[in-house]
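Readers outside the structure-tokenisation community will struggle with the description of the input data as it stands. What matters is that the chain and its backbone geometry are given together, residue for residue. For illustration, here is how one protein appears when written out as sequence plus structure tokens:

…
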Amino acid sequence: MAPENQPAAQPGAARRRSGRKHHPEDWCKPAENRAPACGGAAPTEAAELAHAVQVAEAAQNPAARVATRSEAVSPAAHPHADIRRYFARKVVVLIGMAIAVLLAAGLVLKAGSSGLSIAEIWEGITNRDSGREATIMWNLRLPRTALAIVVGASLAVAGVIMQSVLRNPLASASTLGVSQGAGFGAAVAIIYFGAGSQINSPSGAAVSVGNSYVVATFAFLGGIGTTAIILAISRMRRVSPTAMVLAGVALSAVFNAGTSLVQYFADEVQVASVVYWTFGSLGRASWNQIGLIAALLAAALIFFMANMWNYNALESGTATAKSLGVNVDVLIPVSLAICALISAISVAFCGVIGFIGLIAPHMMRRLVGNDFRFLIPATALCGAALLLLADVASRTLIAPTVLPIGAITSIVGAPIFLYLLLRRGFNE
């Protein structure tokens, strides 16, 4: 106990005297494993931070119970049993989502007009010399399934990271105009750089999108340009999340108008190529292109998982993240650039597929919360499962006609986006 005439220590003075800079990971460790600051301030501050995160989660989920401040600060508030239950629940969700992806992939492999049985599907996958079955599986259905998995995961992960770094639950590549910017770049490549062509066959003439890597390059340039504009707008003062979405709507309108203008001055083959590409399809990518998307997705996941503690800290606000040692000025633009890259490459090879990056993060936040150790992989699995199911719907609703997969995702995603927008407006 300090003498009566001695002035009380200022809050945070112990940390300043200690000279130790805490890593964001310190606040997510159990108290007994955390390196304490001088004077024992770290556990209390960590509990206060955990309480703040819980309050933020409760704002998104009114049914959640928020512990009182005294419960949060109490050393007995988080015993080992609670920690084990916490991790067990998250692992169960991840396992469940992995099973959902496998089941959805099985439906994609089964759907089709050829009427293959399960035994024939298995024979075609395991025996490359099985003739018709192997041709159908390895040239058509397996590439389609693999592309749906990597593209769905890419769009979903880009969405959850955008929502985190922009502090906007309505952010995604489609709602902020990134996909539309990438689409404009792809249209320019198809029309002005010879990426669209006509194929003549005995069954008639058709159009195709050739030189996909040129399309991918211009799609990335369009996506990264849109991302730069969104980042500049987000740094303006008094820009609410709703205003950010409205800015995305405005950018989408600008890029859609630009796409219409370049189509107006193109010939019929080029216009048909752009329209065919815009529909969105999972059936036109090669194994090399799938490998490129998968490699970029893997690199992006490595970066995002390496910074998962930083994203956890960012959930409590930019000021809190900076106080915990997060280099926000580098993390945010680099994260957005990577999101633009994986979104643009997906758009380049599949067309504009909307709302996967919006729906999947919101679904997984309700199941695993805001802990990015689990939220990132869960969202990737959810996005893959959603796009697989959308592909099944596009091929079976009015079979044998295959509907544009972008239309299917928009029909499902637009009402959900409207609900989230209205709910946020009512809360504000």
Summary: Residues 87-427 form a domain with the ABC transporter involved in vitamin B12 uptake, BtuC fold (CATH 1.10.3470.10). The radius of gyration is 25 Å. The beta strands are 196-201, 204-209.
